[in-house]
Amino acid sequence: MRKFLEKLERLDRRVIFIFIGFSIALPLLFPVYTDFSVTAPVEGFYNAIEELPPGSKVLVSCDYDPGSMPELFPMNIAVFHHLLSRGHKVIMMQLWATGTLLAERAMTEVLEDFPEKIYGEDWVNLGFKEGREVVMVSMGTNIPKTFPTDSRGTKVEEIPIMQGVTNFDDVALLMNVSGGLPGTKEWVLQVQSRYGVKLGSGCTAVSAPEFYPYIQSGQLVGLLGGMKGAAEYEKLLGRPGTAQRGMDAQSVSHIVVFLFIFIGNVAYFAVKGKKKRLQVSR
Amino acid sequence: MWETIGIWFGAFLTLCIFSFLYKDNPFYKLAEHLFVGISAGYWATLEYHNVFRPNLWDPLTREGRLLLIVPFIFGLLLFSRFTKKYSWLSRWPMALIIGIYAGITIVGYGSGDLILQIHANLLPLWTDNWLTSLNNILLTVGVITGLIYFFFSKEHKGALGAGAKVGIWFLMISFGASFGYTVMSRMSLLIGRVYFLLGTWLHLLE
Amino acid sequence: MRREIPIAICFLFGISFILEYFIPHEGVLSIFETIRQWAIIVIAFAYVLGIANLLRINYHVVQRKQRDWPYKIILMASLFFMITVGIVFDILGVGLGGIGEGTIFGWVYYHAQYPLQSTMFALLAFFIASAAFRAFRIRTFQASLLAVTALFVMIGRVPVGESLWAGFPDFTEWIMNVPQLAGKRAIMIGAALGAISTALKVLTGLERTYLGGE
Amino acid sequence: MIIFPCSKAPRYRPFLRVVFLLICILLIDPSWSLAQEDLTESWFNPNRVNMLVFLVFFFGVIIYFIRRAKKGKSLFIRRIAGLDAIEEAVGRATEMGRPVLFVPGIEDVNQIQTVAAMIILGNVAKMVAGYDIPLFVPICRPFVVPVAEERVKEGYASAGRPDAYNRDNVRYISDEQFAYAAGVQGIMLRDKPMANLLFGSFFAESLMLAETGFLTGAIQVAGTANIHQLPFFVVACDYTIIGEELFATSAYLSKEPKLLGSLKGSDLAKAVIMGILALGAILVSFGVIEFKNWFFIQ
């Protein structure tokens, strides 16, 4: 037994890799669609959009790239869908260069359900702008000067939806799809606490715990954390997407990691005697 | 047609990267360098189309906003670091950027992460609801003891030591939550790739 | 002189962003607005500088035929390829040039950059699992607090946890909203003080490492 | 003098020139004119007075402490327990005659965490110098190499063993994150260092390094201010220096006025904040909310 445990402790990592691969692939191939409930931060996000009067202008900053796409792309689609279905107007922008085409594609997919929506009237893409926080504060005084043209090169003054949009006072809500830095933290610090805009965030699970203080303090109206947050949001909208599809795989892989930690520790403490470790107390 | 070729190409590159799991190999290296090159090229192209043209070149040449020459020159000065003699000039634009970020940091962190966080943490310790009271007490104790742990001007002995000890418990719980969420995040990323390989590429998912 | 001017620039531009926070006067605001427009342009140049640097470093590797030099050629070629189809073709008016969907640039993005980058990050799923198995050891009381929280969150946040115990999602939310939040807020306040004091030293010229050596 | 670091009058001249130039330029630009409608006449936003009070207080204490430190007055900072952990780890390596590995993170030399790591490196070099064991320092960014070399050399010299310094042990591995991680893992597996010291700014590679180090049975002490990576260090390392402790450690070791001063300033601010939190909670509990409202920013 002891020998087995010792061997287990020295297990080749490639064996572990195979386990993880299967724990993701099998549930995707044979889904059971376990049900789940919706948590408060996601409801807050959903309600913030629901409560707006139709026709409100909503700024959506899509700050992510392919590195966090599985978590954020479904959110991005769901947000656009939700906004357009409620008759709101979407002004989108990006602060991450390598994600511009993803945001555009999300809109293209959503527009399949809304063929009547017109570019420039119902939605506009202001495109990417360099400068991170500087862009944010710059928009606080003057959006048209920060974004003189949209992503297609049209002058902002000539775009109907942008009429009367000078700064954050002229948008009803700010939604941020955030893959890291610059992202939700920067929007909170530079824009929310400075201009008092209502701000909702969809972010990667990695950064979600960091944003809980902002929900409690009221700096964020809602939060979608990772693929699970996206799945809950999809459920609220009644429009299943890839996030909900991935939930079984998420469950199984978490159980596998749980078992790994458990078995690893059993093996470690069973053969612990020979290892001497450092003894420093805080 | 191009779409199909694209999907196969994407699948090939995906497998190239995954081959690193077996060990470092030429396919992985190829894919990695391709990635760095393409994203740098992508970035440069976007800077041209989305910043250089609309924010600098067009207003300068078409609207006669001559003042924009200043940032233009500052931007060009950055490249002086490639020369030996004039490299000191590149400090000017660097100083500008660093100064701006310093100013932004002070205001942003001061308001959003300090004052508003303090405001949000001033909570009544006893209320009609026992759970709310408990939560408020935990929040107050947790933040104060957490700060004690990061207090370096006194030895952590006596009451201060006890406070720091409680503080580290809260920090550890907070790290545990981050660990759980990080596992969640990473698994989601793999789900995305497996979804691509099994669904988009091999059409095995309905 | 070579040190004073950068410090003055740093101070002036930095302080403008602080004053702007306190002074609502329109006239003053429009000065600051101009400064912000400038900043965006200079920062964009800084990123181009980074790309130029990347080229320079890789060119040296190729020139000296250092380790992995053939790969560096691929790196530079792909960089130039993107710039060519994205900028040069656009200026020359070649078909399929420019950025956006339906261009060569867009095709390369969707079918090369996107799979490459997302797979790079997907590798981390494997590494985290391996680390969980082979190095996640509950050796102290503190580590056990970390581990127990991590396990609750991991199971409580996915659907399977909810089917095990209906109260799991609420319990996980409580962890996130109370003890977790307290820890994060303490770190947040400490880090904010650190960031502000560093920024202050930079503004006043006490900290000048960014200037580099003479 | 406090705000501006040039001490003699003529030195202000370039600064004034720049100001003058800026004003001139601002006046000729067509997009900028004073005759704008809806002039908000106010010169101060009264809703933000709390922020102003905080900033003035905080700036004041930091400058005060830095000046004190510069004058040579001693500023007390408690010894960080992590230093004992480093010492013990290095001690164990010297007993066994096995190498020490120091990984200074993957960020560039101008990043504050790398600077802190370099200070700790100097201290480690001093500890190692007396015993004939190698100190490996694999590096991710080319510009960090000369600084690290300098630090190690100084450390060896101050322990009276400049001859023991071996230049080949401070090596540049790769700029690419994972390639660097693979390189460091190679050193861990090949040279089997007894003490792995990981200090600086780490990202996703942190768990790869900590895992491999754990498997080789090394004693590991880690420290980073990148909070998101701390969980991995806590579980796989023997001791972890958390967040700001990293900067406190470097201030403690270097005794540099700049570092000491801002650390003490932050400490005082923290003490005040703790007081506000405790007092505020009690006041709010008794229904007095004016105090709390003062901390709201509009």
List the helices and strands and how they pair.
The complex is a heterotetramer of chains A (282), B (206), C (214) and D (298).
Chain A: H1 2-9, H2 13-29, H3 40-50, E1 57-63, H4 69-85, E2 89-94, H5 100-111, E3 123-128, H6 133-141, H7 143-146, E4 173-178, H8 184-195, E5 199-203, H9 208-216, E6 222-225, H10 226-237, H11 242-245, H12 247-270
Parallel strand pairs in A: 1-2, 1-4, 2-3, 4-5, 5-6
Helix pairs in contact in A: 1-12, 2-12, 3-10, 4-5, 4-10, 6-8
Chain B: H1 2-18, H2 26-62, H3 69-77, H4 91-120, H5 130-149, H6 158-201
Helix pairs in contact in B: 1-2, 1-6, 5-6
Chain D: H1 12-28, H2 49-70, H3 81-96, E1 100-103, H4 112-129, E2 135-139, H5 144-158, E3 170-172, H6 177-191, E4 195-199, H7 205-215, E5 219-224, H8 230-236, E6 239-242, H9 245-254, H10 257-285, H11 290-293
Parallel strand pairs in D: 1-2, 1-4, 2-3, 4-5, 5-6
Quick overview:
By secondary structure, chain B is an all-alpha fold. Chain B is built from six helices and no strands.
Overall form of chain B: extended
Total of DSSP H or I helical runs spanning 4+ residues of chain B: 6
Q: Return the structural class of chain D.
A: alpha/beta
How much helix is in the residues of chain B? over 70%
Q: Briefly note the CATH topology name of the largest domain in chain D.
A: Rossmann fold
List the quaternary state of the chains.
Answer: heterotetramer
Radius of gyration from the alpha-carbon trace of chain D, in angstroms: 25 Å
Order of helices and strands of chain B, N to C? HHHHHH
Task: Indicate the mean pLDDT of chain D.
Answer: 85
Q: Any idea what the CATH architecture of the largest domain in chain D is?
A: 3-Layer(aba) Sandwich
Structural class of chain B: mainly alpha
The rounded distance between the terminal residues' Cα atoms of chain D is 34 Å
